[in-house]
Design goal:
Elements (H helix, E strand, L loop, with lengths): L1 H13 L4 H15 L10 E8 L1 H6 L2 H11 L2 E8 L3 H7 L9 H8 L4 E9 L1 H9 L12 H5 L8 E3 L3 H11 L23
Antiparallel strand pairs: 1-3, 1-4, 2-3
């Protein structure tokens, strides 16, 4: 439970300090002290998603966002954005020296993108599972890439691969004012009481 508290604290520092985050942090802290009284199935997380230019060009951006919403993930930040060479190099700094980087840059600057912050219990892992393998030809049917693409690069979405990277990527593209903390009417029907 100490690790859960550390992870949650990391995200509250980088990507918003809504009431539900404070409540969840309080619950986790109590679980550390009274762990034998608690059943804690997951931690409320925020993750980062880019709906790529190829998705906007193909007219499937709305379908992709709908899949996330139908899963039960909550949109807490959303905006349209156009990559510059500088921002592309920053976001893909781990790939800048690779011979295929110019292909990435051209792809990500071909059209605007949609940037999302999604919230939910274990959101990082959930979104990664929904996204599927990087290569759309090898992605499992039912995943976003398995259903919507045939490419390694034109693979419809980017999703953070860890809680730490989600925090970094969210702070790279969003400011504190971009986040909206609100109550979902369906929230009581998304999770059981012992999961919150």
């Amino acid at each position: 439970q100490i690790e859960r508290t550390r992870r949650l604290s990391l995200q509250t520092q980088h990507c918003g300090r809504g009431n539900r985050y404070k409540e969840t942090l309080s619950i986790v802290s109590k679980c550390e002290t009274y762990s034998h009284f608690c059943i804690f199935a997951g931690v409320m997380e925020r993750t980062f998603v880019i709906v790529k230019p190829c998705s906007l060009q193909r007219g499937i951006a709305g379908e992709i966002i709908t899949r996330f919403e139908r899963k039960g993930l909550k949109i807490v930040a959303l905006k349209m954005y156009r990559f510059t060479k500088e921002k592309c190099a920053e976001h893909y700094s781990h790939l800048v020296d690779k011979p295929f980087y110019p292909i990435i840059e051209k792809s990500m600057m071909a059209a605007p993108v949609l940037l999302l912050c999604l919230e939910g219990i274990d959101a990082v892992a959930v979104v990664r599972e929904m996204t599927g393998s990087t290569n759309g030809r090898k992605a499992a049917p039912g995943t976003l890439r398995g259903d919507y693409c045939m490419s390694h690069q034109e693979n419809v979405v980017h999703a953070s691969d860890s809680l730490e990277n989600a925090a970094k990527e969210l702070s790279r593209f969003f400011t504190e004012e971009d986040y909206f903390d609100y109550d979902q009417a369906v929230f009581p029907y998304l999770y059981a009481e012992d999961e919150l």
